Every structure is written in structure tokens, then in C-alpha cells.
Amino acid sequence: MGKTLDRDRAGRRTLLKGIGALGVTATLSSRTSATAVKKADVAIVGAGVFGTWCADKLQRAGKRVTLIDALSPAHSRASSGGESRVTRCGYGSKQVYSEWSWSSLADWQALSARSGLPIFHPLGVLWIHRAPDELVQASTTVLKKLDIPHRLLSARELRERYPVMKTVDGEAGFLEPRAGGLMARRSVQRLAAELESRGVTLARGRVQPIRRSQGKEGALSALTTSDGRRIDAEQFVIACGPWLDRICPEAMAGRLFPTRQEVLYFGAGAAATGALPVWADLPFYGLPSIEGRGFKVADDTHGAAIDPDSAHRRPSAAAEEKARGFLARRFPSLADAPLVESRVCQYENSSDGHLVIDRHPGLDNVWLVGCGSGHGFKLGPAVGSHVAELVTGKAKPREPFLLAQKERKQDRAVQ
Ligand SMILES: Cc1cc2nc3c(=O)[nH]c(=O)nc-3n(C[C@H](O)[C@H](O)[C@H](O)COP(=O)(O)OP(=O)(O)OC[C@H]3O[C@@H](n4cnc5c(N)ncnc54)[C@H](O)[C@@H]3O)c2cc1C
User: Fold this and answer.
1) The pTM is what?
2) Which of 87, 98, 187, 302 is deepest in the core (most CB within 10 A)?
3) 57, 67, 72, 79: which to mutate for ligand 1, most atoms within 8 A of CB?
């Protein structure tokens, strides 16, 4: 290989710098020297939650893996770059996500247990709703069937347990006591560091768009980076989050809808919020102050279209006003709490909100993985397992993740 990946050593050092801060030793070892880089079995583009878990599962399946990212794992503009994410199993009738969320939880707990800092906070997740609620009824049926712990709480029980939360008669709670919050950025960076120490090649580079015409007999032999380097592999997993349509325009153009989402953190002492779980009162949801970051309030309504590269990440006054209106109704003691932090991120939505996990139409050895659509983070480990089965020929692409099921117009079907 004339121009090899690891010629970008400075880039790789940058990639690993933040990870080193986690107390994980991730060094440039001899196996990544110029002479040692070999053609990978699988090259994965994108070191977000999906790319890193795909790398984990593929390596565990015995594959030699290269993981390449234009910037670094869970960087500020990536969809996995936020502080925290919710993990819950209640998905209405969408049983596959309940199953995947439950199986993923074991991986998150294991990652959390072997990391120096917590990755999973077992706070429980509470859906506040007005009974009867279709989503809660369907979730109850599915969770019962899968034997996943959950319970219903009356308005009176909600008032007794969570006095900071204003509850009116007719409202109820659906509590998943084993669910909770994930430290998003930390988990991806921690996993990336582990991958490096287990022999996965981590590289930095912006991969050029992939087109059908590059294939020979319907297969791709290599990717190229914007600075002319070549990445050879037998198979390719493209997990580029909100950039998926840029790298695979023929497959994804018009089928990816990145939307601007604002997350606000309000200053509230632990005493103010007591033992609150993660909560959802759609379209709002949030977490109590974990690790002292403030009381998180986010609006799940899809915002305006956003360009993940050029968008400024300034919070809007309108989002704060809306969040304060919500706080005044549901958590009145926090209505005037100071805003202590904010983030503007993007959902990378498919037309229906289902993930995309499918073969590239026209390139048999290229797999598209993404469209987390505001709910994909928790599913990372299960997505990695499914992709490993696809790549090793143990599974076939399946509904509801097929590209052919995706439209060029949004019609959200997953909450
Ligand atoms: C505000 C917000 C709240 C959310 N809340 C939840 C939640 O509570 N629970 C939940 O489960 N999910 C949640 N999600 C969804 C979840 O976070 C995302 O779906 C998930 O993180 C997407 O991960 P990804 O790996 O697909 O993409 P990303 O994390 O964006 O990673 C893609 C990577 O690809 C790289 N890349 C792109 N193009 C190239 C290229 N050409 N060459 C090389 N590298 C490239 C990028 O640099 C990036 O690092 C939320 C999302 C947001 C924004």
C-alpha cells in the first residue's frame, strides 16, 4: 500500500488525545506502524455510537477492523456528541426496539462497570401520560411479553413519590425501574479507546463519497480519503450519522432529514429535584441533574432542517421560553431556575423514524447503518450485533430497517 492510513499519525494522535483524558492508555503501537497496516476485513466509516459498536461486535466476531472518522469519536457536531441519552424499553408496539434496548442494556452496564467513570446511571425512566394512552398500553403488552420490569403509577403515587412534579388527576406514570441515563460522549470515547487497545486500527480521515460506478462487479475494493489515502477492505460499514447522505448520495439523498434539536440545562440542586428518574412528558423529556450538569430539558419535536457542518450551535430564545413554559406547568419550582448550559445537536431522521441498516443498493459489500432518528443511541450494541451478523452472512437485511421502506417525505412512526 503506497499511501497508508497511518501516515496521518498526527491526526490519530488528535483522535486519541481526548480519549487519553479518560484515563485509558491508548498509544500508537507497532501494530499501527506503516509496515504493519494490513488490508482490513471490514472498514467502518464513522466513530459515533453505531460505528464503534459495529467495530466492537465485528472484532469480537474475529474480523480485522479499521475504524475511520473525519474528526474524532463523538465530537461536538456528531449526533453522539451530547452529554447524556435516555435508555428505555417502552416503544409502544415496536417490539424489535424493546428487545434491542433490553439486550443493549447488558452491554452498557458491562461497559459502565469496566470504565473508570459511570456510563449508565440506573435512575429508572418514567413516562408521564394521561390514561388511557395507546403508547403506554402497547408498551405494557410488549414489556410483559418480554418479561422486562415495568409498573404503572397512579396520580396519587406520582405525587407521593415525586413531590417536585406537579401531577393532576387523570394523569399516570409508566415506570421502567431498570432503565436510565447513558453518558453519551463518554461511552463512545471509552469504547473507541478500548477498541484501539484490542487491536482495532483507528484512523482519521474524511472519506470521499461512494458511488456505484466505483464498484467492480457490484463490489467496492477501497475507499479514498479527501487527502488521497486508500483504505482497502473486504467489506465496508458506513455509519456517518447526519452525513450519511453526503457519503452515500445515490442511496440516501432525499431520505435523510437532519433536524435542529436544542437541549437546555437548568441549575437546580439535588434537593430541588429529589430522587427523580429520567422522565418523558412528550414532547418534552429530560434527566435530573446527573454529575452536577443541571436539570436537562429537551423538546423532542423535530426542529428546522440543519446542516451539521456549518450550523452555529447557539440556543434560541424561543426554545428557552418554551422549556420554561413547560417547567412552570410540570416542575413549577424550576420555572425560574438559571440556564446553566445548552447544546444544539441534530437528529438524523429517516422518513419514518426507523433506523436504516441495509446493503447499499448497487454495492454488495457496502452496508449503510444510521438514521437513529432521535432514539438510536441506546440501541448501539444491538445494532453492532446485527451488523456483525449481516457482514458475516449469518443474517439477512430485515424490516423495518430496509432502505426500500424509506420515503423522501417525512412521516414519523416511532416515538
Ligand atoms: C439532542 C439529541 C437527543 C437524543 N436523545 C436520545 C436519547 O435520549 N436516546 C437515544 O437512544 N437516542 C437519542 N438520540 C439519538 C442518538 O444520539 C443518535 O441517533 C446517534 O448518536 C447517532 O449516532 P451515529 O453513530 O449514527 O452518528 P454520529 O454520532 O453523528 O457519528 C457519525 C460519525 O461519522 C463521521 N463522518 C461523517 N462523514 C464522514 C466521512 N465522510 N468520513 C469519515 N467520517 C465521517 C462523523 O465525523 C461522526 O463522528 C438523541 C440525539 C440528539 C441529537
Assistant:
1) 0.93
2) 187
3) 79
